[in-house]
Structures are given as C-alpha cells and as structure tokens.
Amino acid sequence: MARRSNPFEDLAELVDRLSQEFETAARSWNPDDTRGGFGWSLEDREPSIDLADHGDTFVVTADVPGYEAEDLETRLSNGTLHIRGTRSETDETTDETFIRRERTTQSFDRRVSIPEPVDSDAVSATLNNGVLTVRLEKAEPTVGQVGIDIE
C-alpha cells in the first residue's frame, strides 16, 4: 500500500517556497532597499533557537552571529528565558565613502518557555563563534514528604 503524504507538510513546504520567492522578488525590485518591496525587513531576523533536554539540564542554543557578549542580555523570569540583543553600527568617523552600506542597528527579543522548574542560581551562559549557549539546571524534586502548617 502506498504511503500518503501529510497535507500539512506539503502546506508548510509551499509556504516556505512562497516566502523565499517573495524575498527574492523584493530584493530584485530595489537592491539598495533592505526593506524589500512589501516593507518587510529582509535582514532583521530573530535568531534560531534550540531547546534540548539533557536529563538534569536544559540547554538553550541560539544563533547570534555578529553579536558580542555585551550586546546580549539574558534573564530568567517565571519559567521563561528572555534573550535580547542589540547591535549598532560603529560610531567611528572615517573618511570612507560608502558605495553601499547595509549594516545598521539591529535588535531582537526572544522568549523560550522552559517546560520544568529550574534552579535560578545554577544558570550559566557562554558565547562562542556567534552561538549563545544557556545551561539551566533542573530544580531538585522534593524528596519525601513535606509537612504544611495550617494557619
């Protein structure tokens, strides 16, 4: 019996192809305009994020090429990891005459819900070659019974 394709996968593939076609068309209408023909920004994209469960630790990995550690802010609040980045062009004044200049201020703000409680004192983050890695140790489960006072 032949396997039937999933119509939702086909639809997702169609949407991806249409998105690529729109971006290509927008670039061709005005190559000096980074906002494209529909007013969509072609360069201000949010970073791709992976969330992995490594048993006793969650690891969040984000692609943030071109960002330095001082350009990034990470914080954990109510089971949600916030990652924010802001990058701007250099303020150095030079005598260079630019033929084309597309590198400008960029920013993003991503939030990732962490599926289980984590120990907020055991969170660490590293940045290596444009990849931000945040390690979140899971909170120790309560062992045994805990008495609850009734007031």
From TrEMBL:
Domain SHSP intervals: 40-151
One Pfam family recorded for the sequence: HSP20
SUPFAM superfamilies for this protein: HSP20-like chaperones (SSF49764)
Family per similarity comment: Belongs to the small heat shock protein (HSP20) family.
Name this polypeptide is given: Hsp20/alpha crystallin family protein
Taxonomic source organism: Natronosalvus hydrolyticus
